[in-house]
Amino acid sequence: MIDLTKESSLLDPITKYIKGKGFRLQAPELPFYNRSVDVYGFSRTNNKTIAIELKLHKWKKAIEQAILYQLCADEAYIAMPRKFIGRVNLDLLTKYGIGLISVNETGRCRKTVEAKQSSVLRIGYKNNHIDYLQRQLNG
Amino acid sequence: MDNMPQLIIRMGSHAEKEYILKLSKQFDGIIVGANIVEATAGATASLIGQKLKMPYYIDPMTYVFGCDLEGIKSEQKIKGTKTTAKVYKRAYKRLAPELGDIFSNALEKKIPVLPEDFTPAVLKQVCQKVVDYQLERLRREFENDPEYKEYAESISKPASVFSPYFLIRSEEWFNLFLSLSKATAEIKPDRPVHSVLCADYEKLIDSSFIKRATAEIPKTGVNGVWLWFSNFDEWTVQGEYLSAFKDLVGKLNKTGLEVYNRHGGYFSLALNKFGMKGISHGVGYGEKKDVSQIKGPPNAPVVNYYLPDMHKRFDVPTIEACLHALGITTPTDFHNKICDCVVCKGVVKNSILDFQRFGEMHLATPESKRKSQTPATAKRCRFHFLINRIGEKNFIAGNDSATITQKISDAQEKWKEQFPIINNSKHLARWKAVLSS
Hints:
The structure holds 2 protein chains of 2 kinds. By secondary structure, chain A is of the alpha/beta class. Chain A has 4 helices and 6 strands, in the order αβββαβαββα. Chain A has helices spanning 11-20, 59-69, 90-96, 123-137, and strands at 25-32, 35-43, 48-54, 75-81, 99-103, 109-113. In chain A, a hairpin with a 5-residue loop joins β5 (99-103) and β6 (109-113). The mean pLDDT of chain A is 95. By secondary structure, chain B is an alpha/beta fold. Chain B has helices at residues 17-23, 34-39, 41-52, 90-99, 101-109, 120-143, 171-187, 207-216, 239-254, 266-270, 316-323, 331-337, 342-347, 375-398, 401-415, 419-422, 427-435, and strands spanning 6-11, 29-33, 56-59, 73-77, 84-88, 161-162, 193-200, 224-230, 258-261, 276-281, 305-307, 312-314, 361-362, 372-373. In chain B, α8 (207-216) links the parallel β7 (193-200) and β8. The A-B interface holds A 31-35, 60, 63-64, 67-68, 70-71, 92, 96, 119-120, 122, 124 and B 302, 315-318, 320-321, 323-324, 353, 356, 359, 361, 370-371, 419-420, 423-424.
């Protein structure tokens, strides 16, 4: 069982989940201007990047962040405890192409809404982030 | 009545003089804190007296001596040792005796001044010294310098002089504020006398406070009043505060007083249509200020990009994320739909990706762990902001209230689908409601 009253509790299940989806190169709190992306991952297999905003319940703020992450990642998601995802406006997610991942008390993750390929991706940002991940890997 | 709103730029340090010198013809005046004057008296006299030749104001900064005096201390090296100690900043140590014994005593005793310290004789002496300081300090700097002595007469007097002021926390402080205003007006200096109504922004909805301010300030004989509602944030406060602020401006102006906002943004500027004579702010920030935060924020604030439609700053990714959806894919689109100021034309030149130059960051030193804004980026953002602010001033001057609110509606319509922007622009609806009521 995980403590779903803390945002940080979502980190471990999410990193494991996306690793299983092929995003093996990862960093938490990846700097992006004055912000930081909660989880950023890169899949070498299909040259795709993913950015995930972790939130307990402030879904509007999460969507706002995820929209910005579409600049630097092929896919942007918000991840929230399963018990709160009913509050999320799914039409808004679909409109902006943001995906949604729910996390339950056992740490099991489930993709509830599939993210669309970002139409605003800036290759420069993506490449910088991949470089950052590789530098982190190489110490 | 000349209804052109005045834009009075506040110089926070001499590092900002480049902006002020380049845009001086577009500003209506400059205001400098007396602490800056004391820290750099020669440079200030030279800038104001010789280089700028524009109306100026010296803020006597008396309020700091009524606040927690820790706020005017800094870590300084102790002479002859390798250790540091937290002591009063030299500028304030020099300023205190210039303004009166009461302030020097406060520093010596390490106790802020209180209303009861102002006996009738002290009050009179303080007002006289504060007025003399503003009228003579810069001229005196030149007179005392053999190299510049001959230029002393060329330094004009300030556009107006401020009466001493403090944060109004109670009836006693309010009484003192009125007494200081009245005593300064009675000196009848050859410049207009302005007072500073300084209080927490919650006082805006305190009907007895507002009633007293509008009834009593005009009776003091001052010619103008600068409003400083601590933490009054035009972008986040609820409509009732904005309405109360607008009403106060109108009521004070109806009594014949010139009304200024010491720290204001576009909303305050737009209140020109309701009696606001002018606003003041810094070159890159300072459109709101907390009285208790004398030192400034602990870290240098990031100067974000000022989005003209929203009259608010946003970071680069927030704006960049919306460009595609707004049909902005080329520099020309950007200039047509976001900003066509000379800075933006110079920066966003070859590709829409050039917009990222408004957000460039670097590791400031080899030891830095986090990236910070590059000085060149901060400069671009400041110039872009100031040029836009000047444009806003001209727009307000040339248009009526209905046109001003229509422009806000147009901005809302244009950005309504851009979630990261519009979700952080709820101020527009509040401004529109207040300005059109």
